[in-house]
Amino acid sequence: MFITEAVHYGDPVSQRFFMRTAFTTGEFTPAVDAFTERFSRIAKRFQMVRGLHDGDRKERVLILVSKFDHCLNDLLYRYRTGDLAIEVPAVVSNHADLAPLAEWHGIPFHHPPVTPETKREQETAMLRLVDELDVDLVVLALYMGLLKKSGGCDSLLRYVVFDLRKLRDVGAEEPGSVGIVRHGLA
């Protein structure tokens, strides 16, 4: 086993320590099951929440976007050129404006009609889509919505990825809601 990358940081708000270590396997590397079992003893001792992921497997990323195209265009360009080693099973938007861009890249586009009356129903449908498409991550590429922490959307939030370089406080505009960062990945 050879460590190829190690990244770690402490979050002062949650008082938690985060660490990501990438390594290559070799002749003396234990099998995944054996490694997981051995490491679980260490994790238990230090009360770690941990996961072991195959670095060669591409994450399945659902992109949520509003009607501005620059973030989606950048993500899809990087995806198409191989700069982002991901799979994009779909793009979802609360506006139909960017359907041609997704379709040009050969990616299914979903435009659920969202009104104040149908918002909760569409949030539930979004969670179903995450399950149906076997999504690992949800990227908010300038998605201007609020996801309520009720009715299933709190489950969707565990998939959401924010670009920490661009993260800023965006107070929730409604009680019980989560403010969504108003800019995407760069």
Description:
By secondary structure, the chain is α/β, with parallel strands linked by helices. The protein has two domains: 2-45, no CATH class; 59-178, Formyl transferase, N-terminal domain (Rossmann fold), CATH 3.40.50. The chain is 27% helix and 25% strand. The protein contains five helices and nine strands. The protein has helices at 32-45, 70-81, 99-104, 119-132, 153-156, and strands at 2-11, 16-24, 59-65, 86-93, 109-110, 137-141, 147-148, 160-161, 177-178. A five-stranded parallel β-sheet has the order 5-4-3-6-8. Strands 1-2 form a two-stranded antiparallel ribbon.
The stretches of 5 or more residues where confidence is low (pLDDT under 50) are 148-155, 162-186
Instruction: Characterize the biggest β-sheet.
Output: 5 strands, parallel
Shape: elongated
Task: Predict the CATH topology of the largest domain.
Answer: Rossmann fold
Distance between the termini: 33 Å
How many H/I helical runs? 5
Question: What's the SSE pattern?
Answer: EEHEHEHEHEEHEE
Q: Which oligomeric form is depicted?
A: single chain
For the biggest β-sheet, the strand order reads 5-4-3-6-8
Portion of residues in beta strands equals: 25-35%
- Percentage of residues assigned to helices: 25-40%
Q: Roughly how many Å is the radius of gyration?
A: 19 Å
Query: What is the level-2 CATH architecture name of the largest domain?
Result: 3-Layer(aba) Sandwich
CATH homology group of the largest domain: Formyl transferase, N-terminal domain
Q: In terms of structural class, how would the helical and strand content be classed?
A: alpha/beta
